[in-house]
Amino acid sequence: MSKFQFKQFSLEQDRCAMKIGTDGVLLGAWAPIENHSYSILDIGAGTGIIALMLAQRSNAEQIDALEIDEEAYEQSVDNFENSPWSDRLFCFHAGLDEFMEEPEDEYDLIVSNPPFYTDDFKSATEQRDLARFADAMPFEDLIEAADLLLSENGIFAVIIPFKEEESFLAIAKEYELYPLKITRVKGTPTTEIKRSLLAFCRIEKIDFPIDELIIETARHIYTPEYMELTKDFYLKF
């Protein structure tokens, strides 16, 4: 299915290696915006879904996205232009290292759904591999970029595999980025934790919320918590 319809916008995804999935929707709906972000950066835009969700949720005047893959970049540009918030959304066709060479702005919110298949599995298409593999954007590079580009009171939010949570938190601490909120995600009540949603800030918090989110109780039977989180976006909720 090429076109994906949400309540306030639609997306084309035929040119993107990584299609719209639950991870992007989770991060777009969950990322904290309580600090009244004026400027937002989405690192690794893909279809542009997370940037578009944040445009819907926030009043941020500047929402930038970064995408290294040319096809995905062109797709996100089209999706931005066809959205109700085209005047606030901008996509850069660049890699993270290139973008960091001459940083022009600091951001109040930085989000990323990074590529994270660190196992030795490679698919048949190089484009899909680039979208999926951590070697295209190692966590340390991502955290270093967040440290460089985040405003003083900014928030950095990511979704990663739960098995990577401990090492991600350790690297972030080296850059003096401290957890603000953690939500661990399970597909169903009986499956193991699959993903971690992590939000960081520059001030160390002794007592920050850690909770768990279950997506479904059975196939296509969604939990009230998941429906509450995503109800402003999905047509079916």
The fraction of residues assigned to DSSP E strands is 25-35%
Per DSSP E runs of 2 or more residues, the count of β-strands stands at 12
Summarize the biggest pleated sheet.
8 strands, mixed
N-to-C order of helices and strands: EEHEHEHEHEHHEHEEEEEH
Strands side by side in the biggest sheet: 5-4-3-6-7-9-8-10
What does the overall shape look like?
globular
Secondary structure class reads: alpha/beta
Radius of gyration: 17 Å
Could you explain how this protein is built, in words?
The longest helix has 12 residues, at 70-81. Strand 3 (39-43), helix 2 and strand 4 form a beta-alpha-beta unit. This protein is an alpha/beta fold and 237 residues long. Helices cover 30% and strands 29% of the residues. It is an enzyme of class 2 (transferase). Residues 36-121 form the Methyltransferase small domain. Its EC number is 2.1.1.223.
Give the secondary structure arrangement, pairings included.
Elements: E1 3-5, E2 10-12, H1 22-30, E3 39-43, H2 49-57, E4 62-67, H3 70-81, E5 89-93, H4 96-101, E6 107-112, H5 126-132, H6 139-149, E7 150-161, H7 165-174, E8 178-186, E9 193-201, E10 210-214, E11 216-218, E12 221-222, H8 224-230
Parallel strand pairs: 3-4, 3-6, 4-5, 6-7, 8-10
Antiparallel strand pairs: 1-2, 7-9, 8-9, 11-12
